[in-house]
Structure to design on (438 residues):
């Protein structure tokens, strides 16, 4: 089999004004849908980050991809993820950054490789009639659990002008409105664990928000909190101590502060106080190169993988093994996305035994009307995405919807994610990302 055509579709999807320590989401999130066509007419698809630089990175590989055998990806593109430097030294770059995911130049090659890998796996799966999870070792679960991903937000449902969407969750800037958001999301999707994107309001309000969730929803829902490094070491320790009960069980404290050294210090002080809440991360550890320093420091106890930037599904499986060997847990990170990415996340999670935490997903924040999967939205039932026997990722494209996504991209002024700029435009003209803020 040979790849004879490669098509990229830059799209924009409505995104509500949700907040994080990075700032504010723009009215549209950018994604790219990729199609690889084989010489026998089968089409493999994938979804990745959007914007001009992601598309340019993919475009630069066109001559290597056209004519290539999708079964031999490691041979023709492996230098992007595990090659050697011109010096002969094996690459083990660290990619830790404070930029928003998808805009980190240090993981540009692993992002690009991942996109091509998943499209090749979908193509192979659709050619041989097998689901992707069964091509990468076989599933260990038929249902992949996801968690409710709560965000503080301003009023608005995303999109702009006549393309503005209805606001499903309203304004959420208090503990009570956050509880309402949680209940709404759990009612709609049946999630059985909850993550709060924190680092937005004063830590006392965020602590209170977690206490309200715990009190009102009960121990049945493991809780996680992630301020994306907005707190100092002292504040992180204080929050860890005050939320020891709320984050117990399957919960964790994710990226409370910046740097591996900072995280290690938080670990040490929580241990001293007898609090064993795991510290999780998708900021301090974002590549294999971060692990040699992180592991002896005991900076991170749960790594959040993400095939989109770790270099694809097989790299996530390698990461799982490393985590297992060194006694770390594995969870999954997410960014604004549609159903093709959701299915890819579900397939890799299904085939990764050590991925035992419910995965993050931004899926509830995307609008049904923007979905590019044929047949509409991928169902999340009882908090889970079902893995069926459909070949490949189990989804096909709706080309009318894809064309609408492309038109939206062409019409909208956004070409990269810049939450700090959005924050200055819509909330506070003087706003800057300050780490630590508290
Ligand atoms: O969507 O604003 C967001 C999140 O802050 C996202 O960009 C993060 O990467 O979900 C992410 C996380 O867990 O850090
Ligand atoms: Mg995180």
């Amino acid at each position: 089999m040979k790849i004879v055509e490669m098509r990229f579709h830059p799209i924009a999807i409505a995104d509500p004004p949700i907040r994080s320590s990075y700032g504010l989401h723009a009215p549209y999130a950018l994604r790219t849908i990729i199609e690889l066509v084989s010489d026998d007419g089968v089409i493999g698809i994938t979804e990745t980050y959007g914007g001009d630089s992601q598309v340019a990175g993919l475009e630069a590989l066109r001559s290597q991809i056209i004519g290539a055998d999708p079964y031999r990806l490691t041979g023709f593109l492996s230098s992007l993820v595990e090659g050697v430097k011109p010096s002969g030294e094996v690459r083990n770059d660290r990619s830790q950054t404070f930029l928003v995911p998808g805009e980190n130049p240090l993981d540009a090659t692993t992002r690009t490789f991942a996109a091509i890998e998943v499209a090749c796996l979908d193509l192979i799966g659709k050619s041989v009639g097998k689901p992707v999870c069964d091509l990468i070792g076989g599933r260990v679960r038929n249902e992949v659990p996801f968690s409710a991903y709560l965000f503080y937000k301003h009023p608005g449902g995303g999109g702009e002008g006549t393309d503005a969407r209805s606001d499903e969750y309203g304004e959420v800037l208090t503990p009570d409105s956050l509880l309402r958001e949680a209940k709404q999301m759990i009612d709609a999707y049946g999630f059985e664990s909850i993550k709060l994107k924190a680092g937005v309001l004063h830590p006392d309000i965020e602590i209170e928000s977690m206490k309200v969730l715990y009190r009102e929803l009960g121990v049945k829902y493991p809780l996680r909190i992630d301020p994306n490094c907005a707190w100092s070491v002292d504040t992180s320790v204080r929050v860890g101590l005050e939320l020891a009960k709320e984050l117990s069980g399957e919960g964790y404290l994710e990226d409370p502060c910046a740097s591996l050294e900072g995280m290690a210090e938080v670990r040490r002080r929580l241990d001293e106080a007898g609090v064993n809440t795991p510290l999780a991360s998708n900021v301090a550890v974002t590549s294999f190169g971060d692990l040699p320093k992180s592991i002896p420091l005991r900076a991170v106890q749960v790594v959040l993988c993400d095939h989109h930037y770790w270099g694809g599904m097989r790299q996530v499986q390698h990461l799982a093994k490393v985590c297992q060997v060194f006694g770390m847990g594995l969870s999954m990170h997410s960014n604004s996305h549609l159903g093709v990415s959701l299915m890819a996340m579900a397939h890799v999670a299904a085939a990764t035994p050590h991925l035992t935490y419910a995965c993050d997903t931004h899926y509830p924040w995307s609008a049904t009307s923007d979905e590019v999967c044929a047949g509409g939205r991928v169902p999340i039932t009882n908090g889970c995405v079902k893995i069926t026997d459909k070949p490949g990722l189990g989804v096909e494209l709706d080309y009318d919807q894809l064309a609408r996504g492309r038109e939206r991209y062409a019409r909208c002024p956004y070409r990269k994610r810049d939450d700090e700029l959005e924050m200055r435009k819509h909330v506070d003209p003087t706003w800057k990302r300050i780490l630590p803020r508290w």
Q: What stands out?
A: The CA atoms of residues 73 and 117 lie 7 Å apart. The two ends are 55 Å apart (CA to CA). The first helix runs from residue 52 to 59. Residues 20, 22, 100-101, 197, 226, 228, 282, 333-335, 360 surround D-glucarate (ligand 1) (CB under 6 Å).
